[in-house]
Model the fold of this input.
Amino acid sequence: MKYLWLELYKLKHRKVFLTFLVILGVELLFVFSNYGNNKNFLNMVSDPAAPAWEDLIIGPAAINGLFFPILAAVIASRICDMEHKGNTWKLLECNNQNRKTIWFCKFTIVSTLMMLAIFIQAFTIIAYGNSVGIVQTLPVRTLLGFVLGTAMITFVVVTIQVFFSLVCTNQLVPMSIGMVGALIGFISTLLPPGIRNILIWGNYAELMVLGQDTSSGNLQSSGLVVRNINFIPLVILFVVGLVAYVVFRKRFEKYEY
Amino acid sequence: MLINAIRAENLKSRHSNMWVAVAVLPLLTAAIGAIIYGINASVSLYDGDMWQQLWLQTGLFYGYFFFPILIAICASFLWRLEHINHNWNCLMTTPIPQSVIFIAKLVVLAKSIFTAQALLMIFIIIVGKVGFRFEQPIPIGMLWWLFMGWFSALGVAAVQLYLSMKIRSFAVPVGLAVCLCIAGLACYITGLGSMFPYSQLILGLSSQEKTLPIDSLTTLVPMVVFYIVFFILLASRRLKKIDIVAG
Done:
């Protein structure tokens, strides 16, 4: 806990939280500014049978694939790069802070911020939905599923970003990984389920709780169908992420600077 | 003097990981574009100009977000060398004008952008000719996609180089680039595409235009040139007036 506070102390005046808030703010502004002009959504607001809440949830769900890998890459890089720039690795270890603690502190801060982003999104969904007066009952299970699913995928993304930001002195590598992740995450809704599940960042598309009703074979259909989140690929990804977490931590503990 | 500065910048970026990033993004973009085109082609949504359709699938999100992010990463990388190991002191004591330092970095960045664009076009030709066996000839418009895409990206390059010079962090300018991409998209949607660098890029790539937007040249080209010159002047002024923190 002491080291965690020290880590937070190091972030003072580094504007990490400001960067986090700006990127998240732009994402939320981008997502929710569209709903006011969306006639389909506005028609759904007063219809208790229409999936208005699900329509609100897919806004952040669709765009998280783009923003979350970049957000995680930026925060992780910002937190880890200061150690590279100051060449403080040996200094930290001399001060009785072992590699395990360094990993834990960095990982905890990045994942806490990412969890905060998810909760802010969920809160914004509820606040926006209530402000426009959606008459449909809030689907709490779907919203919790969205939060849980996003957290599971983001855990893996954070693990990757923290590891590469820690071991690569040149931050070009983790930032490029973030960029590739964002590309895959954003495009993943257009990819078939099998392919997108293999690609780590592609799993953000599994959180789309509303889709087009193409059961009649009409690909231009405007009918909407509520979908349950398929947690099987997410659980598999999360388990792989846990293994990666342990492997990456051990690699970091043995890494020579 | 400028030539020597460019040579020095080339030397700094030689054998760097930047070129891997420059090659990987077009490769991934082309692969994903091919997958999406393949899915849509199999349900016969497209007929007519196949190359244009392939370019639409490939270039749409590339221009919106990923090309500016790549430029931001390369710009951050070019300045990162100066931000570490007290290199600012070394750079600022070299007997060359401050504007030349910035222009030399812009030239190297322009070279990497052109490489990315050229690679993307090569991958698209491979996807079209080898992957989908297009019988239509390779369109002459591809030269527009290549050169105007590259030219319109120079405005973004100037902005990102300035941000990376000013902000000592590698990651923050990249994060800002994502936010500016959203602003660019908003400008493009509202019809102010040629006014903002990040939407100029979308116009230049013209992945959503059925015909080449030749009319837009009269506004696009001067605005891109304006942003390049403006940020060169801004950067030179900053380098002259502000005391550099080396670390």
